[in-house]
């Protein structure tokens, strides 16, 4: 696996396809996790992940190195996720076939494990936005404090504080 400097060397040599091929295994899961933390929908997160890597491929030649490559990719992911959220809000409707399919699926009798998982997700969804994102990335996507901080462009101390507050809220809700 190439390091960030190796990937940037490929870009300087105008070998963008090789650079993106090296980036994908390094960042795909993290990009998906960040997108999912915003969107709470696997299909939407996969769409955003694909969109992010297309944007990265197109913009690689203009990457100026002021930020690390990972920070740059996470910023693109954050912006694409927020754009997808805005677009989804504009188009949400009960006549939407996707929404109706989710309603139809929800009529099946859930198992006890599904009930527990659903209850936990409702509690996590009730958290303030920043706390919810940190919990989703740290616990559900198994990212480190440092990775969460880079993905959300915040200091590690802030990530730890948000996790502490989220755990306190979830403990009080239980």
List the helices and strands and how they pair.
Blueprint: H1 4-12, H2 16-39, H3 42-59, H4 69-91, H5 97-105, H6 112-125, H7 129-140, H8 145-152, H9 156-173
Description:
There is one protein chain. This protein is mainly alpha-helical. The protein has 2 domains: about 1-110, RNA polymerase sigma factor, region 2, helix turn helix motif (Rna Polymerase Sigma Factor, Chain: A, Orthogonal Bundle), CATH 1.10.1740; about 110-174, Arc Repressor Mutant, subunit A. The chain has helices at about 5-10, 15-40, 40-60, 70-90, 95-105, 110-125, 130-140, 145-150, 155-174. Helix 2 (about 15-40) packs across helix 4 (about 70-90), helix 3 crosses helix 4 and helix 8 (about 145-150) packs across helix 9. The protein is globular and about 55 Å long.
Compact overview of the structure:
With 174 residues, the protein is mainly α. It contains nine helices and no strands.
Order of helices and strands: HHHHHHHHH
Stated plainly, the CATH topology of the largest domain is called: Rna Polymerase Sigma Factor, Chain: A
**Unreliable residue stretches:** 106-111
How many distinct domains? 2
For the largest beta-sheet, the strand count, sense and barrel status come to: none
Number of helices: 9
Would you tell me the overall average pLDDT?
82
> Could you say which overall geometry the principal axes of the C-alpha atoms support?
globular
Share of helical residues: over 70%
Q: How much of the residues is beta strand, in percent? A: under 5%
CATH architecture name of the largest domain: Orthogonal Bundle
| CATH domain class of the largest domain | Mainly Alpha
Structural class: mainly alpha
Report Rg: 18 Å
First and last CA, distance: 43 Å
Q: Superfamily at the CATH H level of the largest domain?
A: RNA polymerase sigma factor, region 2, helix turn helix motif
Question: Could you tell me the number of beta strands?
Answer: 0
